[in-house]
Queue: 2 jobs
Job 1
Amino acid sequence: MLLTRLSLAAAAAFTLLSINGCSQDSGPTLAAPDAFAQAQAGQLTLVDIRRPDEWKQTGVAKDALQINMAHPQGDAGFVAQVAAETGGDKNAPIGLICRTGNRTTQMQRVLQEAGFTQVYNIKEGMVGSGAGPGWIARGLPLEACERC
């Protein structure tokens, strides 16, 4: 009887952990080439959320806004800057890119919690991840960071 209860408790804990793990990546994603095509067509605002030293090191995705996720006013400042860049339109499609897609997952959630409805995670990032080879390896266009 005790073994059955322990087995059920372990199964329940595993299920809860699995659900929580899945929910962390529940937002929509885009591959780097798709994000670039949509940005070039004016259908997506591309936002590079990395730090200035990272922008300087690799360059920035062509036409991407540079909004450091480590904003001096925290998450609220980041959200306010994104809102300003999109004219306050919380339904505007936004594509977030970072180095490998980890930080974009976090900031996607922050923007969604602030009421943004179309926030896409470019999970392969600039240098690649398990989601894909990345912006740079795909040969997508880069711009030098002029504000670094």
Note: The longest strand covers residues 45-48.
Job 2
Amino acid sequence: MSQVITIKTDDDTKRAAQQLAKDAGITLSSLINSYLKQVVVTRHIEIYVPEPMSIGLEEKIAQVERDREDGQISSAFDNVEDFLQDLKS
């Protein structure tokens, strides 16, 4: 017999999960059921919540992107010798 589980989530998460399920050709209910069955069978709960970047990190990334656009960053190297040569110049 099927049971009803009520959960609360924000609108953006629900919409994104519904779209993901739709893209996979399943319902959101099927997606959630599949995950719950996986947890029960594997006895492994994997939760991933990315941490927001700090303002300092965002500033560093922006600086690197500006440096790259200005040609201030070395190109990729195929070997250590070329890398060392670039460091010395």
Note: The mean pLDDT is 92.
